Amino acid sequence: MPNSNPTTTRVTTRKTRLWYGISAITAAIILGVLTHWDEVVKGDRKVLHELIEVRRDSITTFMETATSFFDPLHATLLAFIVGLVIGWWTRSWREGIYIWYATAAAAALSTLFKWFFQRNRPPTIYRLVTELNFSFPSGHTTATAALACATAFVLVRHVTSSRGRQIVWALAVALILLIALTRLYLGVHWFTDTLAGGLIGSGVAYLLTNTLPKPPRYPRNQRPPRNLA
């Protein structure tokens, strides 16, 4: 019998979320192997040079500011704060802490991947900010993807309208794309680094949704507490 509760978010099954998470991380590993393939290298270089062509002082200032808030450490700290706020709003500490540990786990996995693949960053002459560690995957994009996806997963469990849920996910995707773009524009990552970061971050967030409690079920005539939509 179909679920008649309008406030319960449509979610994929636990098994589907598990398989998506594993598949996304596996895809990132495969992508890491392919970064040595000539066609991938050519594509990465093309994207880098195209973005160099559109650099402007005003854009650079914005990109530098935006990227500074979402390095793995800052993103993990931000996830802790966001988790506290959302945990209070949803009255569920498990939902709040999930946002933090999903981001922290993704950031840690990103560091492990960097050590394993040891891919060099774009040449120093193209970089607008200083980065000293390896390139693959983008730690900024990984942490941002985990933070954005984890936050969206929790919010859509409590937002009543389908439009509201669409807005939540649209904002999450927009944030991920923005931070990925900052890393490319600033010349510190290749395109495949940011793509892998998005896969790893979202994959970890998906995997860890299985640690969340069951979605809340509200009566038809009762809106969720402190509802946003």
From TrEMBL:
Any one cellular-component term (Gene Ontology): plasma membrane
Keyword Iron assigned: no
InterPro entries (alphabetical): PAP2/HPO (IPR000326), PAP2/HPO_sf (IPR036938)
Keywords attached to this entry: Cell membrane, Hydrolase, Membrane, Transmembrane, Transmembrane helix
GO molecular function, one term: hydrolase activity
Membrane topology: Multi-pass membrane protein
Keyword Disulfide bond attributed: no
Family annotation (Gene3D superfamilies): Phosphatidic acid phosphatase type 2/haloperoxidase
TM ranges: 18-37, 73-90, 97-117, 137-156, 168-188, 194-213
SMART domains the record matches: acidPPc
Tree of life domain: Bacteria
Positions of the Phosphatidic acid phosphatase type 2/haloperoxidase domain: 95-209
Protein name from the UniProt record: Phosphatidic acid phosphatase type 2/haloperoxidase domain-containing protein
Species this protein is from: Boudabousia tangfeifanii
